[in-house]
Amino acid sequence: MEQFYTIQGEGFNTGRAAYFVRLGGCDVGCVWCDVKESWDADAHPKASIEDIVSAATAHAGRNVVITGGEPLMHDLGPLTAALHSAGCQNWIETSGAYRLSGDWDWICVSPKKFKAPLPEVLAAAHELKIIVFNKSDFVWAEQHAAMVSPGCRLYLQPEWSKAPQMMPLIVDYVKENPKWQVSLQTHKFLDIP
Ligand code: SF4
Question: Quaternary structure per UniProt (predicted)?
Fold first, then answer.
């Protein structure tokens, strides 16, 4: 759908330069999705793996974020193998709703209520990022935290439009439950993609 070189704005890798590859296609159906134009994979042009790798490595950074849409609707084995061969670190942002494919250096799973994540994808996560939309999401966050590996980093991130209401609750929750960290969509504050 689109590719761009920017700064990772959220989660564990916040602040690091990264080349984003947004793949078209998603049937998860989040009501607050801010990339609804990604849902129809056929609405976007196809790109060859060779062209994606060449565009990604045209910049100084070697971190590549594969996102969507829901990127795991595609078989990501060939793309991630080619990126690794070109010296890139492969990071993924996924809802976890589809079987894991590809070879990853960082897996961020952000579960969605509308299509549950697969247990095996949660077990492989390096980072669990829960978008907090309302108060009940803290219970939901703990249910998913119980399904990740012991070393997985845990983040609570306010849904952008709900941040004024949810941020005080998140701050209190993290102070009481310090295994969690706050994640913010800093790219939106910085006005970068
Ligand atoms: S999983 Fe991501 S792309 Fe798909 S509907 Fe939800 S927020 Fe949008």
Answer: Homodimer.
Contact 57, 90 (CB under 8 A): no
Domain at 2-190: CATH architecture: Alpha-Beta Barrel (3.20)
- Rounded to two decimals, the pTM is 0.97
| Cα(132) to centroid(ligand 1), Å | 14
CA-atom Rg of the chain in angstroms:
16
Farthest-apart Cα atoms in the chain, separation: 48
User: Is the CB of 94 inside a 6 Å radius of any atom of ligand 1?
Assistant: no
Do the beta carbons of residue 181 and residue 152 sit within 8 Å? no
Integer CA distances (angstroms), 137 to 62, 72, 76, 98, 146, in order: 34, 24, 30, 22, 14
112 lines ligand 1 (CB under 6 A): yes
pLDDT digits (tens, 9 = 90+) for 129-152: 999 999 999 999 999 999 999 999
